[in-house]
Amino acid sequence: MKFKPFTLSLLAAALLSSVSAIPAMAQNTNTPSIDRTQQDIRTRIQQGINNGQITQQEAQALFQQERSIQFREIRFKQDGNASPQEREAIRRELEAMNADVDRMLANNRGNNNGMHTPGIDNREERISARIDAGIASGKITRAEAKKLHQRERDIQRLERRYKSDGRVTQTERRRLQQDLNKLNADVDQLLRNERHYRR
Fold this sequence. Notes:
Layout: H1 5-26, H2 32-50, H3 56-77, H4 84-107, H5 118-137, H6 142-163, H7 170-191
């Protein structure tokens, strides 16, 4: 039986892909807890859209953020092994995204049982914008910005924890404001080119 060259190349490609798929399946690329978190976030965003707590524009920004995380996850898995460090990086990004969803849900539902924290949320956004402006101007390096954004995510995680019982107390609000004051002061130092940033 004769095969045309094109048919042979197709058969060869199919054979090679099936052979290369065997070790790939055995490799360490399963991330069930990360996948569950991503699904939970998607569900919360959709619920927020349905009940009017998240606008279409906000949802679009969140889904873009989610796509960026997914692309990073795919890149991590390309070598057949998602390392513990890579998994932790994805988890941190998902936690930050969860905090963004929390903030949008809180901002758009009014002051409900002390959960509304617009002053804190607005300060977080302003500080984040100042960090990005510092990178653009060259006053803040990428490494410095990474540390600053990590501290910002830590504050957002703390805010989420405070909100988990349905109320943010005055003491908790003061703690968040103090943390934001320290972060803002360090951003100020870097923007003034005072290179004794510490953490």
